[in-house]
Amino acid sequence: MTWEIIAGLIALCGTAVSLGGVLVKLVRTLTRLDVTLAALERTVSSERHVNRAEHSEMRTRLENHEGRITKLEWRGAR
Predict the structure, then answer these.
(1) Is the model's pLDDT at 57 over the cut of 90?
(2) How far is residue 34's CA from residue 42's CA, in Å, rounded to a whole number?
């Protein structure tokens, strides 16, 4: 083997190690991002459920107030 071949193999191995390190970091980051998005999705889903319940309660209260206002308006018109 000549020195050029050995130097080429060393350069090729160095490139593979460098790219491998970058790819490992990228995979770790993407995995963490996936876990974070899954947690965010669960949180948003639970918040939507709570919001729907609260909005339903607010609508019921609003309808009760509208009924009271209507009764008061009819009393005043007499």
Answers:
(1) no
(2) 12
Q: How far is CA 26 from the centre of its chain?
A: 19
* 2 phi, psi to nearest 5 deg: -95, 165
Q: Which amino acid is at 23?
A: L
Q: What share of the chain is helix, strand, coil (3-state, %, to 5)?
A: 95, 0, 5
State percent of the chain over pLDDT 90.
Answer: 60
pTM for this one?
A: 0.56
Residue given tokens 């490139």 in the structure block: 15
Computed on alpha carbons and rounded to an integer, the radius of gyration of the chain in Å comes to 33
Closest CA to 44 of 36, 33, 55, 56: 36
Q: Closest Cα partner for 15 from 4, 25, 26, 23? A: 23
